[in-house]
Amino acid sequence: MASKIEFQSEYEVGIEALWNAITKDKFDVLGKAAPLLLTEAQVLEGDGGPGTLISISIWSAAPHLPPFKEKMVEFDETKHAVSFQGIEGGMLKLGFAYYNVSFKLDELGEDKTLTKTTIIYEMDKDFDGTKVVEEFTNLIDEYIKTVVSYLQKNY
């Protein structure tokens, strides 16, 4: 049975800048915002829309996290909604049987954006994933905070 975690935060950053930073410019911005975090990232297939397959290696933030592949499941530029599903490695090697991470951005003002994050996941049978789920949630939250901090300083 799938479980769901939802959280939201307001940030002092424009919606278009944040949208581009977590979608189209994801690797470029993350590489600049946290150069010691992202070891390697590449698009394996696709054009950046639904079905795009990406490979990511993370280093210092989670040194025990194996490289992973994710597929973009949703990309709706008009609704500012994007979601990624893990398909190989990473959290799938650490007890997750399935996960999907979604971001939905809503404009609250000229330079204010509400970010809604949803993580839907299933754990492998007979695996108590309390600690790894908490770690994964914190990693996703820190990712957005790192991107926002970079945008606030550089745009």
TrEMBL record:
GO terms for biological process: abscisic acid-activated signaling pathway; defense response. One of its GO terms (molecular function) is signaling receptor activity. GO terms for cellular component: cytoplasm; nucleus. Residues 16-151 form the Bet v I/Major latex protein domain. Belongs to the BetVI family. This is Bet v I/Major latex protein domain-containing protein. The lineage of its organism: Eukaryota, Viridiplantae, Streptophyta, Embryophyta, Tracheophyta.
